Amino acid sequence: MVDLDKILHNGKALFLAYDHGLEHSPKDFEKGDEFTGAVDPQFILDIAHKGGYTAVALQKGTAEKYYTVWGADERNEVPLIVKLNGKTNIPKVEPYSPLICSVEEAIGLGASAVGYTVFVGSEHEGEMLEIFGAITHEAHAKGLPVVAWMYPRGKWVTEKYGSDTNPDIVAYAARVGLEADADIVKVKYTGDRESFAKVVQAAGRTKVVLSGGEKTEKPEEFIQTVKDVMAAGATGVAVGRNVWKSSDPLKVTEEIKKIVFG
Amino acid sequence: MVDLDKILHNGKALFLAYDHGLEHSPKDFEKGDEFTGAVDPQFILDIAHKGGYTAVALQKGTAEKYYTVWGADERNEVPLIVKLNGKTNIPKVEPYSPLICSVEEAIGLGASAVGYTVFVGSEHEGEMLEIFGAITHEAHAKGLPVVAWMYPRGKWVTEKYGSDTNPDIVAYAARVGLEADADIVKVKYTGDRESFAKVVQAAGRTKVVLSGGEKTEKPEEFIQTVKDVMAAGATGVAVGRNVWKSSDPLKVTEEIKKIVFG
Amino acid sequence: MVDLDKILHNGKALFLAYDHGLEHSPKDFEKGDEFTGAVDPQFILDIAHKGGYTAVALQKGTAEKYYTVWGADERNEVPLIVKLNGKTNIPKVEPYSPLICSVEEAIGLGASAVGYTVFVGSEHEGEMLEIFGAITHEAHAKGLPVVAWMYPRGKWVTEKYGSDTNPDIVAYAARVGLEADADIVKVKYTGDRESFAKVVQAAGRTKVVLSGGEKTEKPEEFIQTVKDVMAAGATGVAVGRNVWKSSDPLKVTEEIKKIVFG
Amino acid sequence: MVDLDKILHNGKALFLAYDHGLEHSPKDFEKGDEFTGAVDPQFILDIAHKGGYTAVALQKGTAEKYYTVWGADERNEVPLIVKLNGKTNIPKVEPYSPLICSVEEAIGLGASAVGYTVFVGSEHEGEMLEIFGAITHEAHAKGLPVVAWMYPRGKWVTEKYGSDTNPDIVAYAARVGLEADADIVKVKYTGDRESFAKVVQAAGRTKVVLSGGEKTEKPEEFIQTVKDVMAAGATGVAVGRNVWKSSDPLKVTEEIKKIVFG
Amino acid sequence: MVDLDKILHNGKALFLAYDHGLEHSPKDFEKGDEFTGAVDPQFILDIAHKGGYTAVALQKGTAEKYYTVWGADERNEVPLIVKLNGKTNIPKVEPYSPLICSVEEAIGLGASAVGYTVFVGSEHEGEMLEIFGAITHEAHAKGLPVVAWMYPRGKWVTEKYGSDTNPDIVAYAARVGLEADADIVKVKYTGDRESFAKVVQAAGRTKVVLSGGEKTEKPEEFIQTVKDVMAAGATGVAVGRNVWKSSDPLKVTEEIKKIVFG
């Protein structure tokens, strides 16, 4: 039986996501020409631990070298979501995210759940759905929840929906998550509470968490988004840059927690 | 030994199909800008149960979250067909439907039968026939019937046959189902009783069910189609939108049942 | 040890081939706008049985539903060749015939031999030779003969040889059969006895059977071809349309038998 | 431990190669419009036996039907090299040679060694190196030497090196053989003794045999080539057309043997 | 538990890399028109042994024929890194390096660690990351460190970063190594100490070694680079041409050692 409570608190999700080095390059960790503390996974795990996150999402390498084997200490009381696939942002091709870690390896690393990205609408959507199907089968058989990064992407998404935050395509992506057996889908904000409520409705018993996205210019904008998605029925948020690029990550965390956990 | 009676009643089929969220997007569940009850799989399972359907066809995620694990109750007295493959309608490529669920997983979800789509005539027809061949082998070895969504599709179908309801291509698709070992083929209506009778004839001992398709403007049109296909020798119908987009799904169901079960 | 006698009589082959529904569409079974009896696999199995064919070649679905499981009776005294691959004639691509049935499944269906098509010269020749290599290995390990439909096909065949009945390419295809370990190759007629004798010579210890091909306008033309190929050293013939599209299949069969079995 | 002595005599190699029916078509066996005796594998095995070849290289089908199962007699005292991959010369694509036979099957056929072609520089070089890597692993684990047909081929070879006998590319191909763990590489003549000596040097502990190639107009030309490559440090020669297209194969063989075995 | 000390000395790395015959052709071993001693793997193993290298990196064939089976003597006291993938420089395609050796085979050859190249930014990046993911899993399960040749390459790298030594892309490549679970990354020099320090920072607990690259015109240039990277926090260097193309390899080695081991 899949136990979602491993990565939730009172049924709500507060995830700290940290796979940006692979997905966007370490440029995400820079301020001016220097790296901030965010380049260091220990810094992130400290935030996760002190901030009371319900889970932290890492690639297998970061997990193995900072969470599991060498650096294990109180920081690994935060439940771990191992992200199973990932890619760089360099090749300009129809997006595909290769599988870098197996469910079995993730369990060995101490994962409480696994994560997987599906680029809905990409020419390679089918390959990702096939692998996602195998992952949900294996993870569920071993009692692990599956968090799906459901990201509309590729030329046909642009052509048909204009933007990857168009409510119709976000709702579609969330629904694909349900029908393909994700336990939680991580999706972008659609811009308003009403349309996000439809995303939640389309996802049915699959829970919805907000994908935090780029750091907003004004922190209060992000906080408003969190309020809107929670009011729309979301289960929580997965944050990254809006926290660890902030001047005071734990303060931002506290504000988010008030909204998410009520 | 494959036992078709698991998903038939008196040798006739009344299937409720519900994989539209994945195949077409949740737009199929909208009326105006709002979702109708049809967005909720529970609503569908209630129709299936109260309507006396001989089986309901779901993707693995919908099955797992509403039929098998969390929501099991009297609704799962309706036999389950797990649809093993599926895709979104976004990428504009020669159609291919990836395998999302294995026969083994479907059995674990409580399936009485499995379903698989073959896009006959697609550039990827061969890959689907290879996988279909493996599925019929495994399913039959475990006593499960296989229902094949035999859908002509792709640029060469358009070029050679004009339409995917051209009687010649529908009969061809049905025959491919027989030779590739489908137990039941689900095909579109060819437009008249005579040509549909030839489809049934081409399928031989493989049974034929009507694919209900888009909601007709006037319900009586759809009822007439059901009459024609049954008169043509079909084993039954697989309906979706013409039932759950109807203002009174159970009433439509009763009309269909009278024709199918006589 | 592979035992060819299972599908030969006095060392000669008289095969009834019936995979046209998949390969050409059920149009092959029409006369005017109606299907003839040939649309029904039972009709074919009756001819095979009454005509004393040394084997009948079927796709797995036709075999399972008419020969093996549900319809087994005296008709299945005729040895069965299960054709392992097949495709429709719709996609206009370099030809590839996907594997629909495994050797293991064919044995479960009661096969005395297996058949496989290699489109020699196609861009996908390599994939078919790889699979053919695995099939001959497995079939021979289990004592089953392998019949290879060696068909030159694709744009380079046309460019280099003009026609797929050019004696040079037919001899090449037969030789590929020998070197890739076919026990019997099924090839088209080259047009004259002398060139067909070279085909037989190129095939060495791999036996050669004529691929009957389209129904000839005058039956005596086909009979003359049978005489020529047998005189050229062929082991027999694999017939289909020239028999079951005939007005008197058993009479044509008798004429062929006189030539093949002498 | 791999034992090269199985296919060498006093440390020298005299291989008779005979896979031309598959690679070039049976046209290689013609003189005028008729086949010579060379079309018959028995003829070749007789030459191999009487000529005292240290091994004969055959495709699996020729091996199974003439060497192993049905024709086994004194002819199979000649050690067998089963060529594991092969292709026709018809498709005009970047060259790839599909795997037709496994190491395991080759052993079952009585092989003392296995052979595999790598088209160095082809767009499909990588796929062949991957398979070659698996073959050397498996063959060496079972004590079998691996002979690599290292043939530069494809548009980039032509563009960069002009010819596939350019000494730089032949030396490169031989070196790839060493680093990828071939025990013996079969390469074309580079045109002069000095450059061939560098090929041998580049191959290091991997032994080098001459690929005989097309029948030379004057037999003495070929004999001179054999002298040159042996003087350059080659381990021996792999001959085909220069022997079995000769009017007196055994006489040519004797001349070669004098040079190879000294 | 992975034990990096097997291939380090006092926590520092001095690797001798020698896969240039496969990657660049034996031209790398020439001086004028003749091969130098560097064409001979024994010559290299002697340098590795006498120079006190902490490991030598070889392809499987070179390892098997010179290190493991036939040539094993005191030279194999130097720990072995078996490079698992490799390719020639001939095909002008988006770079992909095929897997030639498995982790299991490398262990059988006596490897203390395995190496694998990822061409970051290539169209085939995804395939390499998938395989790299499987390799780190298997190697770590068996206690073997994984050294990743993290090389930015391909048209999009050129388009976006101009050069493969642009500090941004080198830092990105190093970070991919960390997140994908490399224990050591081998990267090119970025041109100055400050930017290389950021590469080391981006790699976190994954150690960084310098990829020596082409022989510099003046040896002191290379020595200066070694000083800079060590000052920047690198763990060591992997050298090849700057050592074995030198007139006095052991002298150069001594100079490097003084810097690396302090």
UniProtKB/TrEMBL annotation, chains A, B, C, D, E:
Active site: Y151, K186
InterPro entries membership: Aldolase_TIM, DeoC/FbaB/LacD_aldolase, DeoC/FbaB_aldolase, FbaB-like
Top-level taxon of origin: Bacteria
Pfam family, one: DeoC
Gene3D superfamilies: Aldolase class I
GO MF annotation list: fructose-bisphosphate aldolase activity
PANTHER family noted in UniProt: 3-HYDROXY-5-PHOSPHONOOXYPENTANE-2,4-DIONE THIOLASE, FRUCTOSE-BISPHOSPHATE ALDOLASE CLASS 1
Designated name of the protein: Fructose-bisphosphate aldolase
Taxonomic lineage from the root: Bacteria, Katanobacteria
